[in-house]
Every structure is written in C-alpha cells, then in structure tokens.
Amino acid sequence: MTDKKTLFIDGKEVEFTNEPNLLEVIRKAGMNVPTFCYRPDLTSFGACRMCVVEVEGRGIQSSCTMPPENGLKIHLNTEKTRRIRRTVLELLLANHDRKCLTCSRSGNCELQQYAQEYGITDIRFPDKAEQDYLPIDDSSPSLVRDPNKCILCGACVRACSEFQGHAVLGFANRGSKTKVQPMNGRPLGQVDCVNCGQCAAVCPTGALTVKDDTDKVWAEITNPAKTVVVQMAPATRVALGEMFGLKPGENIIGLMNAALRKIGFNYIFDTNFGADLTIMEEATEFLDRLKSGKNLPLFTSCCPAWVKYLETAHPDMLNHLSSCKSPMGMLSPVLVDLVPKNFNVERENLVVVAVMPCTAKKYECKRPEMYRNGKADTDYVITTQELGKMIKSAGIDFKSLTPEDHDSPFGEYSGAGTIFGASGGVAEAAVRTAYEFATGEQLKDVDIKQMRGTSDFSRTVELDVKGTKLVVRVVSTLVEAEKAIQEIKNGTANFQMLEVMACPGGCINGGGQPRSCDDTNIKHSRALGLYKEDEELPVRKSHMNPSIQKLYQEYLEHPASHKAHEILHTDYKDKFAGSYKDI
Fold this sequence. Notes:
Elements: E1 6-9, E2 12-15, H1 22-28, E3 52-55, E4 59-62, E5 73-75, H2 79-94, H3 110-117, E6 143-145, H4 155-164, E7 169-172, E8 179-182, H5 198-202, E9 208-210, H6 214-221, E10 227-232, H7 253-263, E11 267-270, H8 271-292, E12 298-299, H9 304-313, H10 327-343, E13 350-356, H11 360-364, E14 371-372, E15 375-376, E16 380-383, H12 384-393, H13 415-418, H14 425-439, E17 458-465, E18 468-476, H15 478-489, E19 497-501, H16 520-536, H17 546-556, H18 562-568
Parallel strand pairs: 1-5, 10-11, 10-13, 12-19, 13-16, 18-19
Antiparallel strand pairs: 1-2, 3-4, 3-5, 6-9, 7-8, 14-15, 17-18
Helix pairs in contact: 8-10, 8-14
C-alpha cells in the first residue's frame, strides 16, 4: 500500500491522488482560482496566467500546468498573486470590446465575472484604437465569431484540434498582432468547419457564440396567420433546467412543455418520436446489410457534424453511411405532411421549429437534402441556450410552472428514443429493435450498459445475437471517428456498426447546451437523467411505440418501404470545403 500523498493549501493539509495538476487538487479541496484557458477535457496550456499561485521555494507558478508533489506548500491569494491577476484582467479589458450590455454572453462571461470579483472599475491602459477593431464574422449558419472579444486563451483552438482533429481555428501573427482566426483568415462559413460548436462551448467570453435565431422564431409566433409547431431533442430536457437553477440531469420535459405553450407554440411534439422512427428504419437497414454483407460497417447518420466531416474528409466512405435522416430530419417531414391533415392547418401557414442541443443542426436544416418542393421541412433550429433566453424574455417563472404533456401522436416515444441524447444511445436503441426483428424473440434485458459512458470517447462492444457475433464501435469526437475509419481502411476493423457523435459524450454535451466546460461531471449527470427516463417509461423499444406502429399502418406502410424511403431517407455526396458557403 502506498503512502498517502499530501500537500498544503493555505496551511491546510490536502490529500491528492492522480490529479494532473495543482488546479484540480485545489478544486477537489473545495477551493478555486480563476482561469480562462484551462478546460479539464483539454490539454493544459498555461496561456492566461490567471490561475497563478505562490509555491514556497518555487515562486509564482501556473496551477494548471504544475503537477502536484508531496509536501508542497501553496498559497492562493497572496498580495503578489492577486496583483498579477488584476494586471492580467486590466490588460485583457484594455484590448477587449467592452460593449457588455449588448453582448450575448453578458451575465455569463468569465471575463466579466472576474473583473467584478477583483473590483476592476478603472483600467490604467488605453483602450484599443477604433481602427484596430475587426469585422464580426457571421458567415457560418451555426456560429458567430467576434475577434474583438477574443482574449487569446486558445481554448477554441485546442477544442477544434483535440476533439475534432481539425485546424479550422489557429493562432496567426506574433506579439501584439496575434489573433485567433480560421484557416488563411477566411470566414468561418468558407472553411471545413463541421459546425459542432465545441469552440463556442469552451470560449470564456463572447468571441465565439451560437448564432441566435430567436427573433425569427418570435416573429413567427406573434404572426396570427402562422401555426408554429415545435419538437425538442432528448438531450435538451436534461440540460435546460440548469439555466433556471435546477440540477444537471434533472428531467424537466413537463416544465419544458408548459413553457413552450406559454411562449406561444401551437403544438408541441418530441424529437424522441423521430428517434423511434429512425430506429425502425436504421435497424432494418442494418439487418439488410448484415444479410448481404455489403457496405459494412454501417455508420450512423444522426450527427450532422459527423456527416459533413465524412463528406469533406472521406467521401470514399459515404457508402457506409446510413441513408436514414436524423430524428429531427425524419420528424419534420412527417409533421409537414400530417399536421395539416390532423390539425386542420394550411401547409403554407405551418412553421416547424426544432429545439436542439446542437449548433450543427442549424446547418443541417439548411442542407439541400432537407428541402422538399423548394421549402425546408425544418424552418428554424434554436438551441437549448436560445430556448432558455426565450423563456426568460417572456417573463416566465420556469420553476413554478405546472408540468404539462406533449401533443399526440407525434409526442409519444419509447425509452430507446430518449437515450439517443447520450453517446452509445443510438447503437443501444438499434440493437434493442434489431435483435427482435432478426430473431422474432423478445429481448428481455434491454439495458446494454457496456455501450454507455461519457468519460471514454471510444468503446467496442461485442454482443451475441443467438449465436451470431455482433461487434459495435461507439465513439464520440471526430478524432476517435478518424481512428475507426483508419482501421476500416487498413483492414483491421472488426465491427459491423459504428456510432459517431462529434461532441464529447454525445448530444448531452452539444455546442448549444448550457455551458459545462469546467465540470466534466455535468455531462455524466445529463446522461444519467436520460437513462433514468428510459428505465421509467412503459415502452422501452422503438418498434413497440403504439404511435409509431400506427404511423406505419396508416402512412408509411412498413420500414424501408418506398414511401418511407421517399420521406425518411436521403443520400450524401462528395462535398468540398466551402460548398455550403452560400448558406
């Protein structure tokens, strides 16, 4: 048994184990120091110098890069460390666009927070000259980049590289001219950005933000001629509550339904219904491929960032991609076709809004493949963050609402549909249905827990389907997806299905969710919230959802029918970077 390892923080003895740096030890002990550049899921960078501490015998050290050592004596708030932090803040603010009242991150900005905490009311250094301000880049359908609010922490650069393997963002120039920008200084909408939004999720200021479409949605809601329907993704229900002081992972779907009705949406449906629909089609497609032995492994197609990455980086692998649209992409055309008939609404006055955890969904809804007869099936996508803002601006006391149900039939879903929001959920849901489709027997234990997890971004699971071995690879982040692709290309892959989510941990950690970059436990709590709902629902398999069964009987005929392919499937083509620059 090894001896206990301890160090001293402001005179208090603190035990540590495998923490990678002093900052994590400090946080584990219930204390903290400010930081802009440190994110637990990313490599330590030590750029901002805000997390400095004074170590006896070592002087001033950045706590995010210094590993813990037995017997160290650390002081957090000495006169020297506080002076350094105040100077850093003043220098950052002198070079920062300080129009805080009109910034979308006002009230949720780390620079603003620390300036208040350290009492920065007067800045000794001159403001940035007017001619030095750079234009705002809103060319992306998903994100807005304001270089005047960048503090050069490098978190976005590392997120893009370490999560997605991209170099979309990088440092340019040197010294006082240093800046973060897309490749070759081009607009964000004209480079091979996959729109995942992880850069915005880790940005401490308003330099990278989600593109806000709430004004457009409000305009539709307040137009008496319009009927506005909404669908919401599974991951949103376990994260939205965080914006109102509720715990991460708390399922607030009933409160969410009530809030959406108070805002003015006419009908409220659920993307989980679309997830069940996806499983009906994808499980059938997977079994067909297993039988024929063609185009295996099957790649899931729910994540638009992953789809775009495959189109631009590996178009030769597109034959592996499922032809199924995403759950949002499936439910929207069903709503467009059937809401007018079922609810006596004119098609030209119907507006479909989707609430998503994902910034890439803003890009997806504008893809040409998601249009029919010259009109998008999903008119607008707003993120969890944007819905929270809408609820607040409507003056709704969220926590005092009485929970309400969704509208039927397109709001009814199974537990398999709800776990789509976590990495591994799509594959687990597919296996639940594929097993029963293939064997004709009931799958008694539907919990395939080895497919679950938010800390490890790659898992390989081997299953036994009545004597037939089935191997599924589950990955999140495109870095891990790339490794899987290389296994396929070099002939060492042993899996028949590959589930890919671009965001670490899956949609629960999407770029449009409330920010959680400083606490890796939040995405775990959100995932647990989805699995808890799955366990509590009376139906846990997509093909057992009565409303799904009825939809096939009355509209789609059967999975993989001609009608189903016409409405629920699509195809993907070789794309080059910038091919969606007109979006």
